[in-house]
Each structure stands twice: as C-alpha cells, then as structure tokens.
Amino acid sequence: MINLKPVVFSLFAASALLATGCNNTEMAPENTAANTGPKTEMPARIITKDDKFTYANYDEVRVTHIDLNLDVNFDSKVLDGIATIKFERVKPEADMLVLDTKNLLIKSVRLFEGGTAQSENNYLMGQDHPVLGAPLTIQLNENTDTVLISYRTSPEAEGLQWLSPSQTAGKKKPYLFSQAQALNARTMAPLQDTPAVRLTYSATLRVPEGLRPLMSASQGEIDENGEYHFDMPQPIPSYLIAIAVGDIKFKAINDHIGVYAEDYILDAAAEEFSETPLMEEANTRLYGPYRWGRYDLIVLPPSFPYGGMENPRLSFMTPTLIAGDKSLTNVVAHELAHSWSGNLVTNSSWRDAWLNEGFTSYVENRVMEELYGEERAVMEQALDMEGLKRALSEAKRPELTHLKLPADMEHPDDAFTLVSYIKGANFLFFLEDRFGRDKFDPFLKAWFNDNAFKAVTTEDFITYLHENLHKDNPEALSRAELDAWVYGPGLPETARKPESDAFKDVTRLLGTWLAGDSNGDEMFDASKDWSTHEWLHMLNSLDDFGDIDVENLKVLDATYSFTGTQNAETAFAWYMQAIKGGYDEAYPALEEFLMTVGRGKFIYRLYGALKDSGREDLQFWAEDVYEVARPGYHPIAQRRIDDIFKAE
Ligand code: BES
Ligand code: ZN
Q: Contact, 420 vs 403, CB < 8 A?
C-alpha cells in the first residue's frame, strides 16, 4: 500500500512539534510511571505496581509457576484440590505473599523451602470486594519458595460455567468451560491475577468418565489412573489459564492445527475454519514465527459470552461463527493474532488494553487482506468504523475514549470497548500510512520479537516507536498527533477513512429505494451477489436515513427474509432495526435468538435496546424473556444484563 501522507503534512507536523515545545528526539511519554520507577537489578516494568485490579504484591514477590491438582466435580459444581505455587522475591526482604482470590474456599496453606515443609496456616483472608474479591495474605518464612494451598472454588465462580447435560447439544453429558479474562482467574485458583506477571503452569485433572478435559496448554495425557496431565511451559499471564471439560471430539485440519467440538458441529466447524493454516502462514510471514507449538480451536456451547478468547494453543470460540460460508472467520484471524499481540507481548495493566486488542484487530485485518484481498479488508475496516463511531457517541465519559485509559476505571470491562479495538487498530493504520508498510511492517515484527514474553505499557510502546521508527523519520509524525491518538478523546482527524466501492453501491441502492425513487428491483438484483459484509452495511445504514418506517421493514423482510436468518451477525443487525422500527413480527424469532445465543456482543445490546425502546410492553417482554433465558447464560453475561436492567 502507498504512503498516504501528503507533503504539506510534514510541514505541518514539523511546526506542530515546535508549537508543543517538543523536539524530534523527545518522544518520551507524558505519563512516565513505568519508566521512572526505582532503578534496581530487576526489570523496571515489574517493579512499578500499576495494576489497580489486583491485590497481589507483585512488586515484592513474583509467582513463577502454578501446579493445579484438581477434581472437576460436576455434582457440586466446584473445582476442588491443591494449588502449588512457586515464586521469587523481587525484594529480598519480602516476607509476605499476597494472592488474589474471589469466592474461593481456602482450606489450608502450607509453606515449603526447597521441598522441605516449613510452617502451616499462617495466612489471612482480607475483606471481600465485589469486583476484586479478597486478598489472601500469606506470611512467609525466610527462604520459603513454595506454598501449597488446599482450596475449593464456588458454584458461583464467575469464571466457570457449569452446564447440565440438557444444556448441551448432545444432551447426555455435562460441560464445563472457563473464562479467566479479565479478573476471573482468581475465581478458579489463588494467584497473582494481573497481566503484569507471567507464570508457567501444569495441571492434573480428575474428571468423570466419558468426559475429556482440555486446557490452554499441552493436549493432555491420560495416565493409568485415568488422570489427565497438562503442561504450559511458556510463561503466560494468569488470564490465559483455561479449562474446558465435556463430550468433546477432535478433528485435525493439518498436523498442528485442529478443531475440538461437540459431535453435532465438529465437521461444520472444521470446514468453516479450514483456512486457519493460511492465516497462521500469513501472520508468520508478516510478524515472525508462531511460538506456541499447536494451534487448536474449540467450539464451545452457545452460552460462551464472547466471539472468541485467545487462550494459548487453544482458542475458545462461539458456535455463532459457524455461518456455513466462512464469512465470520475474521474472529479466527483475531484470536490467532493474539498469539503475537497479547499472549506474547502483553498489556501490563487493563489501562493499556489497546496494546492487546487494538494491535490484534490491526493484525487481524492485515491477515484478512493477505488471504482475501484488500476489498474484504476495507469492508471490515468500514464496518468497524461504523461501530466505533456509535461507541464513541455512547461513551460514558470522554476519558474512556482515550487509548490510555484512566486510572479510575471501575472494572476492566470498561477497557474492552471498540475504543481499544478499533481506535487502537486505527492508530496503527495511521502509523502504517505515515511511515509506509516497508518500514512499519518490520518495525511491528521487531516489537513482537523484542518484547516476547513480556508485559508492556503504552509508554513502552511510545518509547519503542520513537527509538525504532520515529527518530529516523521525524517528519512522519508530530508529538501532538501522537498525543491526540493516545491521550486524547474521540477519533482524531488523522484517522483513515475506509471507503468501499461495494458499500457505496449498497448505500446508493438503499437510499434510492427509501426515497421512493426506485421500486427496489435494482437493489434486489444487485443483492444476489452481496456478501454478509454488504448485508451488514445495508442493515447498519438504515440508521442514516432517519427514523425507520415499519412498512419499509415489512417489505425488506418479505423480500429478503431476515427474520430467523442463521447468520448470527445479520440476525443481530436485523433485530436491532426491528426493535427500533417497532417491527413486532420479528419478536418470536428474536426470543428464540435470545434463548439460544449467549454471546455478549449481541445480547447486551439487544436487551439494552429493548429496555430503552420507550415502550413499556417491550420492556416487560424483555424482562420476561430474560427471566427464562438467564439460567442458561454465562455468569459474566448474567452480571452484565442484570446491570442493564438495574440501570436508570
Ligand atoms: N480477548 C477478547 C475477549 C475478551 C475481552 C474476554 C474482554 C474477556 C474480556 C477476544 O480476543 C476478543 O476480542 N473477542 C472478540 C472478537 C473480535 C473479532 C473482536 C469478541 O468476542 O467478539
Ligand atoms: Zn481480542
């Protein structure tokens, strides 16, 4: 792609640098917390404790390994067993280990030095906080290097969903899956639950006969006692520890990529995701080797609250991606891309979430372009931009539209908006356009390589950008422009404006029909060649033509049969319009959708729109539907939708 920067821009950039009193060699960030911490032998980024969503004293003691030895008990819906934790002292004098826990029952704590038992039960459970849980403070002896914690999870653990056999597709066996990001690893085990700390892990699991456990680790080996053993020898942040247990089958895609799923969807999933090897090749070509060995995908039950989750070696995926035409596989490109951005180079706190999600959304789009060409990539950019503009207009406060998020965020959920994803990706598009792909691609590859297996802050990135790209190309970018992206609100004017000719056609055809200038035949004929992307653009564009007339929705549905469509993205976009336009004929199908799909991206906004529809009958209807659907939703989704109905 060509460098889009016009010449006059560099003049402006140079004067802007002068105007803000910066010179070209000073790109040091304003917020230098991570860079000005006390200088000791240990890496500076670990020394400064800047994650406020953890109780862990990771500036003093750092957990290096956790071994989990657990019974997976479906009757009582608990994980029950022993966590053995190894750690190092960052400060030699440290005499306490503070771990995060949430809803855990701690039965005993034993201390060890080099395999020799020391004292027992010298610990304190702190007060419970609704978001953070409770700190577990363990008094260490001199030279204690290992603690052994006997514990049990709660059936209410937010990170675990226990499904009864009737809630699965096969109907015969129960299912368990975890979701640790962002703060729920602490509901699964006591640990330092911050992305700033990396640890290796191993696990021994006992599961009921006929069930197969999987983890974000080695594939799992069964021993003569029927126990399964897992190993993750590469250090990862706690939010990437993951487990799934169920009647799960496997189908290979190639020698190191495959799909796990319940039987009913296994073949369809392997077909839908058959291009994953090409994605891995493209990603590797652009940004360096895939470092995790195998890459498998597991298709979870429909209550999985996300599109995908990048658990290392084993991405967790929603079944709503199985559209039959590979139209939603950008989510695979996304989760795979996290193997570089996020899993290899990790945001050191959730304030820097864009370093995970923005980078990943950028890489995702580059990989989609490599595989399917610029047209599809630009369509996805344009759809994302439509979403970002809406998200920006709905932001609770302007600080939440900065890439560097404010220190007083209430919950990391606030960090995972389209700001981190799409504004983040667009900042990188902007840099790509300014420096040119010939320079920017190797730069990003080096960023992943130089920071592999580390936690990084926004300020680390700015410094690295200056040292490795900007210093030699100072005219490409001014400090003020960079600050506007990172520390400023909204979408900077320097953002790319993705323009898809195909989308322009869609908008034109829709516009002439809505204006009564055509009878719709032209749109109908053109639509025979439309991809899911064009349909989504069409449905989103309805908003741009003023209030939607229910008569138009009726004609659209009669012509194109949106209600009940099997493509979850199209269905969602259609039901949003149906709610807005008062197209009540869609409600039985919408009810079915809400009863069977638990993916947050869809159901949070659908419930929100119903609640805010201004129609009492719809509000009551939504509450009734939710009451029935709620037990089937994931605990994370339950909390989020409870909040929607509670809000004024
Ligand atoms: N890491 C996220 C999922 C996540 C976010 C879990 C916040 C917990 C807290 C994952 O990589 C993701 O971004 N999934 C997206 C798909 C993507 C294509 C935007 C999703 O779930 O929709
Ligand atoms: Zn992501």
A: yes
